[in-house]
Fold this protein.
Amino acid sequence: MPPDNRRSQLSWAFYDWANSAFATTVMAGFFPLFFKQYWSSGTEATVSTFWLGLGNSGASLLILIMAPLLGALADSGGMHKRLLAVFAAVGIMATASFFFVAQGAWPWAISIYVVAIIGFSGANVFYDAMLPSLTTPEDFHRLSALGYALGYLGGGLLFLVNVTMTLKPGWFGLADAAAAVRFSFLSVAVWWLVFSLPVLLGVREQAPTSSTGLALGKEVGKLWNTLKSIRQQRNLWLFLCAYWLYIDGVDTIIRMAVDYGMSLGFAVNDLLLALLVTQFVGFPAALAFGWLGQRVGPRKGIYIAIAVYVAATVWGIGMTRKAEFYVLAVMVGLVQGGIQALSRSFYARLIPADKPAEFFGFYNMLGKFAAIIGPVLVGGVGLLMRRLLMPANPSAEDLVRIGAMAARWSMGSVLILFFAGAVLLYFVDEEKGKRQAALLKGK
């Protein structure tokens, strides 16, 4: 492989290193924790869970609307890197803004969180769309897995520092754990900014074409044609539907795991350490799934990951001790990066090579649409079960017991998404899908 191409691939993969700090420290770790204990302190646990799920879903809805159009504009004008930079800047500035949100100001916190997720998810549309131009279809699995592996390692390293800051604030000259969390948000913004430079400076991209300035109506027409193309490709459509369902379960577990653990009464320190375990298990596991995808095929690899997620969800429903949460963290870490990496590379093999951002816009749209349903499902089921099970004059013991029971019901609702996604994936014919994609190239 030419040195310039290797450099571009590594530069591209390093963006996972950059933005995974947000996914780990903010989305999975400190935001749900800080939202429940600091920004919405005094609010009932199930109510704060509902608002957290609603915030995740609101951001995802906006990305759902924006992603396909942005993808079409990027493909027509060679603007992947430019638009990645714009959305990453939005996410970085929003993340830094968490530092200034006062205790109890949960409406501000959830509003900024929505903006940050829009920046994070919007940038990913253009990051994912660069993959087909950097390597051959046979090597998609390896490069996609490398990105996720670097993401786990980079996000895990910064999260390790952030957790240490929270547990030992005095070591860093900080007053308390709350100050440590606020400075952790700043550190994520700086990390994201610095390590975004390789993809912006080190990846070559085609020069903008004359179609960049086309009227919005023409781009909407292109989107409609793309949607019709997807509908005409049975295997691509089936894969997207399957992906929509099973990635819903994955994203919901990522975003709601800490909140779930807190609802069961686990200590915050244990939850943070379990997230660290997930990160560092995820680094070698994501690389292993890249190898697995090349050896047994992406569909079998995805099935293995779904099976582990089902087992982990069942395990999580019944767990009562902190040691069991650590087992859950290991199980998730083994497959979280793998299912994402193989899904991305599998999809890249089913789309026309000359329209990656346009088709990845739909891919990310469905992923974010899944994230609309999942968090609301978890939050809504928990709230509903709490109201159904709670007696008229509950004691303190009733509040704790029924709160934990409602949380278990809400987590169990995720299982149906994994099963439905696995069933649809069974009917996807990869070879036929690749032939159909080749026929659409240039059209």
Notes: Residues 210-216 have pLDDT under 50 and may be disordered. The chain has 17 helices and no strands.
